[in-house]
Structure prediction request, 216 residues.
Amino acid sequence: HVELQVASAREAITRLFNDSITIIVCSRTFNAEERAVAKKAKLAIGEYRIAWDGVAVIVNKANAMTKLRTTQLDSILSGRVTHWDKLGSPLVSRIEVCLPSRNAGTYEFVVSKLIKAPDTVATPAAVVQSSPDMIAYVTSHSGAIGLIGLNWLNDNKEKVNVLELADPDAPDSLGTRGKYFGPYQAYVYQQYYPLTRDIYIYSRADNYGVAAGFTT
Prediction:
């Protein structure tokens, strides 16, 4: 039998290392610190990329904003831009940033992708522990902006506005520099959507039980 347990990326990886669970599905790769721990403990961990996912940027339905550049999103998260009208929105209110916890894979992915100095992330208006909480906060605060994985967006996209993103620093090979893309499956698969990430399965490499069958 497979029992599903929900945890932050950092907690799941820690439990895998401690051998309290046998397999995890994770929205980011191990960071340098985690790889060093695994190497020091001589843990043989199997890594399997199984999917591509996107992180959607969502705002309240009262907000007429439809597009952002990744550099603008960086400015919002870093606290350099604090009001919506500075971004061209008719909404005259303070930007209320809602973020996942620092241990969440979504948080770590977005910060590493967008912000050159992770320590410069401004104190958010709210920190939530789950994706349903993220949806609830954004829908109840007109000035809110949040981040959510596409799997959670599917059943909630009518409740929020989903922003299209453009990456001014996109690789020349993609031919997408300056163009806006929504978090749709095709754009995620083609890597056109700027906040596209890999989804991994990690398990002990010497495990040949139910976990190996699940991975297969």
Summary: The first helix runs from residue 9 to 17. The chain has eight helices and nine strands.
